């Protein structure tokens, strides 16, 4: 089984390629969080994978919370691995995954990192073509190697450093509390896709306009996947591109 968290499709693309090559079942961490599904049995599986993006040099909050709540049986003797997609370089997420699984008594065989297009457009922007295509091609080549290693159950990198942060803390996005940076501008059509795509259930549509309330993992699924480009993060994203991995099937 492959537990996958993905907002803009990079990690999902990696997980889909792994699933195709191994025949392993994909489990969407966002869906599991929304449905409160934390019990899984790996007795019939050879491998258990965790595929996720790097957030602030560690695991996304959604992934950390899911692993904390996870009740996994039948994991003994299985090949357990992590694959992280990042926009620049890896951080403590391999160490964080190792530490979190160890705390649950789950063994770990190592992790792998793939550089993919950076979706954190607060500080940067979506790279234009042909740079974007070159990053995706590089990721495909890196994935070829990772897939062979996972299929052969080879030991990956084990980072035993104590991580500074196990996962990125959730952010209060309730506008009523004055701290929410995410909002829908006047072009919001009230279609509700942002609410459907939110792993944390933070978005609702009120009077035809999306509204954020509660604790958010800052994955930016709402922002990048809005067909009207109406979702903004403060003043940081008005004139920036939007990104969804063009090679993924949602
Ligand atoms: C809140 C946030 C924090 C991020 N922090 C990092 C980081 O510390 N280092 C990095 O290389 N990329 C960082 N990124 C970029 C993502 O890790 C990268 O684009 C990833 O492939 C996105 O995966 P997804 O498409 O599966 O959601 C960050 C993205 C977000 C939204």
**So, the CATH homologous superfamily of the largest domain?**
Flavodoxin domain
Indicate the proportion of strand residues.
15-25%
Please summarize the sheet with the most strands: 5 strands, parallel
End-to-end gap: 18 Å
Radius of gyration: 18 Å
Query: Secondary-structure element sequence?
Result: EHEHEEHEEHEHEEHEEEHE
Q: What small molecules accompany the polymer chains?
A: flavin mononucleotide
Overall strand count: 13
Overall CATH class of the largest domain = Alpha Beta
- Quaternary structure classification: single chain
**Which regions have little confidence, pLDDT < 50, spanning 5+ residues?**
none
- Assign an overall shape: globular
Mean pLDDT level? 96
Write a brief caption for the model:
This protein is of the alpha/beta class. The chain has 7 helices and 13 strands.
Structural commentary:
It is a single chain. This protein has 250 residues and is α/β, with parallel strands linked by helices. The chain has 2 domains: 2-151, Rossmann fold, CATH 3.40.50.360; 171-233, Alpha-Beta Plaits, CATH 3.30.70. 28% of the residues lie in helices and 20% in strands. The strands form 5 sheets. It has a 5-stranded parallel beta sheet, with helices on both faces. It has a two-stranded parallel sheet with strand order 3-5. A two-stranded antiparallel sheet has the order 8-12. The model has no long low-confidence stretch (mean pLDDT 96). Residues 6-12, 53-57, 85-89, 91, 116, 118-120, 218-220, 245 line the site of flavin mononucleotide (FMN).
